[in-house]
Amino acid sequence: MLSMEKLKEYGVKTNTGLERCCNMEAFYFKMITASVNDANFEKLGKALEANDLEAAFEAAHAIKGVAGNLALDPLYDAVCEMVEPLRSRKEMDYTGMYKKIMEERDRLAAII
């Protein structure tokens, strides 16, 4: 079951995230739960497979925004590594970065 303690152990700045959710813990937990099921994770993977850097950037940027607003720092940090090269549409192998993002998402999902 999700708790503030588990989130802190994962690396979340819970005070910051909770403040952004008007200090409503139930709402904060609901938003975190929804974030791990965000369709942008799948969109990002498919866009990378298709080498569609525009769509990949949009999905990665959306994930970054959600993770940042909820103070999910490990996920946020992982996606930040990918967003900037995608912003400039840099042709490169994003496989390792995507794997890291998915690992962080899965670590978060495991504590929910």
Estimate the mean pLDDT confidence. 96
Q: Quick one: overall form?
A: elongated
Strand residues, percent: under 5%
Order of helices and strands: HHHHHHH
Poorly predicted tracts of residues: none
Evaluate the radius of gyration. 14 Å
Number of helices: 7
Largest sheet: none
Count of all domains: 1
What percent of the residues sit in helical stretches (DSSP H or I)?
over 70%
Distance between the termini: 5 Å
Counting helices, strands and paired strands, the structural category is mainly alpha
Q: How many β strands by DSSP?
A: 0
Describe this structure in words.
There is one protein chain. By secondary structure, this protein is an all-alpha fold. It has one domain (4-111). The chain is 76% helix and 0% strand. It contains seven helices and no strands. It has helices at residues 4-10, 14-20, 25-36, 40-49, 53-69, 73-87, 95-111. Helix 4 packs antiparallel against helix 5 and helix 6 packs antiparallel against helix 7 (95-111). The radius of gyration is 14 Å and the shape is elongated. It starts with a helix and ends with a helix. 31% of the residues are buried. The mean pLDDT is 96.
What's the SSE blueprint?
Layout (H helix, E strand, L loop, with lengths): L3 H7 L3 H7 L4 H12 L3 H10 L3 H17 L3 H15 L7 H17 L1
Helix pairs in contact: 4-5, 5-6, 6-7
Question: What labels describe this entry?
Answer:
112 residues; elongated; 7 helices; 0% strand; mainly alpha
Describe this structure in a few short sentences.
This protein is mainly alpha-helical and 112 residues long.
